[in-house]
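Would you kindly consider the sequence and fold I have copied below?
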Amino acid sequence: MANTADISRGMILKLDGSLYTVVEFGENKTARAAAKVWAKLKGVDNKRTIEKTWNSGETIYPVRVEKKAYQFLYKDESGYNFMDNETFEQIALAEEMIDSPQFLKDGAEVFVFINTETEQPIGAELPEKITLLITYCEPGVRGDTATRAVKAATVETGATVNVPLFVNEGELIRINSKTGEYVERVKE
C-alpha cells in the first residue's frame, strides 16, 4: 500500500469515492507536531478542486491509469468520438472529460487516460503543443514586430487565439493546448 511519501504531481488518487489528480503538493514540518503532507487536488470524474492534508506516513489510495493514443474522429450528440490507434475500437467522451476540446480537429492524436481497475476512460488530453491553421485574422502591417502587441485570430477549429501582429491569415501556428497561448509560427 502507498503512503504520503509516494505522492507525486500528476498522480491520480481515490478519495471519498471520487478520483482526483494531484496538481501540487508539499510538506509542513513543525518542531512539536508530526509533519503534515498537503495536496491541491483536481477532480477527474467531477469538477471540484479541493485541498487535502494528511499526517505524514498516512495511507493513500493511488489509482493505476494507462495512457493510450487515440485519434479524434468526430463530434455528435453522444460526445466526442475517438478511435484506439491499435485495436480500432471506438469510444465517446463527454466534453468535460477532455482538456481543451476547442482545439480538437479531425484526425488529431490525443491521449486517453483509462482506469485499469474498471477499464473505463476517465479523461483525455491533447499533446502539449499543437499546430493549427489560421482561418481568419486582421492583416499584419510591415514593421509590426517590435512591440508585444497581439490581435485575435480564428483557427481552423473555430477557437480564438491571441497572436502577434505579424502573423497573417493562412499561416500555420503552434499553440500550447494547456493555456491556449501562441508559441510560434510554423514554416512549411
